[in-house]
Amino acid sequence: MARNLALVGSTSGKTGCPAIFADIDTGEILIQGDEVTDPPTVPRCTATVRANPCSSSPEFADPFRRPRSDVSDLIPFAEVSHLFEDFEHTAWRLESRTGYAGDRRSEEYQQFARGEDTTEDLSDPYYVARREQTSQGLRFERVRVIDDPPSDGQRYLLHRAQFNIAVGEDIRVLPRARADRLGLPREDFWLFDSLVLVRMHFDEEDELLGVEVTEDPAAVVHACQVRDAAWHHAVRSAEFEARVRSRR
To answer: What is the value of pTM for the model shown?
Structure first.
């Protein structure tokens, strides 16, 4: 059976062996290297997996657990805004923070905090653009990690979800406890077409410092695995809201 493989990396120079590949469809990691012949070990291996002492190689560590880039290496978010127009299939977002400074500065957030009506105008250019894109088959998807109880910032995002959903976005919710059990990174990122990863970096005050853009196979494959796990375990926003209301 043919596999859809992506090269994660190799430390062997031009020969490419040993090398690590990821199966895009199944998430399996395949290692090309020396064949396993030790009798006690063989039963635990498949024919496609070879033994290779790669665990000590930092190149193959979880990309989200590597040291972050220096702030000076980050670029403004505005410089990647074109990706929201250029992508061909999916724009996927993981939101893990308890709140965002940019939200708190908005008048709408202040109105929401005061309990005032904050119905949004769906004729706003942002919503018009999203409606046009989703009507053409493009997918905007998000998973929001929510604490128990939700923070004020998270309650505001839950409120805003209805407007994004109205123009075609698919927004789902994942409880923090479940995200932690799954070992998901406490990171915010956008993933475009399963090819371009945009990692968002914030300071302790929830201010966006800038973004890091990469097409590195190891980082992208790992982001795809995070996406698949989060999406599988998350529930639709309306379902989550109903659960929260039933507990009040």
So the answer is: 0.73
